[in-house]
Design a protein that fits this description.
This protein has five helices and four strands, in the order αβαββαβαα. By secondary structure, it is an alpha+beta fold. The protein has a four-stranded antiparallel beta sheet with strand order 2-3-1-4, with helices on both faces.
Length: 103
């Protein structure tokens, strides 16, 4: 059984947002609007990526418009790499990888 069969497919949506929208603001605003909000992968300096199921793409776009009326969906993809390759700013702004400490 593959991972996709266990957890389901995912879609990543790239957005432009207002420069004042941070990851914390996006998360708290989405939680207020929706009981089960989409996951905010990254959000900084006017760019954001949200993760959702394929069935919730349009709902996720609508929720983001409610969070920030100036937001605009750019592209939807099945992988983060595709979005970050298409928009270099998303690659530059991606969060740092968490380092695991080995004791």
């Amino acid at each position: 059984m593959t991972v996709k069969e266990k957890r389901g497919r995912r879609r990543y949506i790239a957005f432009t947002v207002g420069p004042e929208i941070t990851k914390d603001i996006a998360i708290s605003s989405l939680r207020m609007l929706c009981g089960d909000p989409p996951y905010v992968v990254q959000c900084a300096e006017g760019w954001a990526i949200l993760r959702c199921s394929p069935e919730n793409i349009e709902e996720t776009k609508a929720l983001m418009r409610r969070v920030d009326a100036s937001s605009a969906p750019l592209k939807t993809s099945g992988t983060l790499a595709t979005l970050r390759d298409a928009y270099p700013e998303l690659k530059r702004l991606r969060p740092a990888k968490k380092m695991l400490r080995h004791i």
